[in-house]
Amino acid sequence: MRRNTLAILATCAAVTICGQAQAQQPAAAPAAPAAVPDQMPFDIPYGNSITADRAADVVKAIVAEATKSPRNWKLAISVVDTHGELVYFYKMDNTQQGSVTISQNKARTAARLRRPTQIFSNAMQTPAGAYVATLDSPPPTASPGGIPLIEGGKIIGAVGCSGAMGDQDAAACKAGADTVK
């Protein structure tokens, strides 16, 4: 019995000493801060806002992409001007009601922040991405399917699609954005 007690005490002492030795190891050096870029990302100037007729052409290309066989994506499609204000809206038959506002928010985010909403979606997937919700009021829509419309190197508006999966929304929106050169 005495031998068992001594063995247990010796084991406890060894665990305590090893634990303290590991706890006294120096902390890893902090990572070097990221280099600050010289150029501002997404520094795309604004141009004259898209017209309703031009927005209708963008929407036609999106509907064609969404209904290409065997697809049957039901989308709400919003086109906004350079300020993020609605210029043209189209809702395909049987599109879920929640997609109306979501498509407008995706387009508004892409126009006002001069970048595709996919970028915010990617950022939100990282621990550091929590800041995205603080960027605007209401916060940016961090879901694929919002794309700026760039003509001659200037933003003339943006398009937002909602109703399908995020990647499907983005693919359809890209087809419309590609009609603007």
Give structural notes:
There is one protein chain. By secondary structure, this protein is of the alpha+beta class. Helix content is 40%, strand content 14%. It has a four-stranded antiparallel β-sheet. α2 crosses α5 (166-177). The mean pLDDT is 88.
Q: What class would the helix/strand composition place it in?
A: alpha+beta
From N to C, what is the helix and strand string?
Answer: HHEEHHEEH
Roughly how many Å is the radius of gyration? 26 Å
Q: What kind of sheet is the major sheet?
A: 4 strands, antiparallel
Question: What is the helix fraction of residues, given as a range?
Answer: 25-40%
Shape, principal axes of CA atoms? elongated
By DSSP (H or I, 4+ residues per run), the number of helices equals 5
| Poorly predicted residue ranges | none
Would you count the extended β strands for me? 4
Short description:
With 181 residues, the protein is α+β, with helices and mostly antiparallel strands.
Task: Give keywords.
single chain; 181 residues; alpha+beta; four-stranded antiparallel sheet; 5 helices; 4 strands
Break the fold down into its secondary structure elements and pairings.
Elements lengths: L1 H22 L28 H15 L9 E5 L5 E6 L6 H15 L4 H8 L21 E6 L2 E9 L3 H12 L4
Antiparallel strand pairs: 1-2, 1-4, 3-4
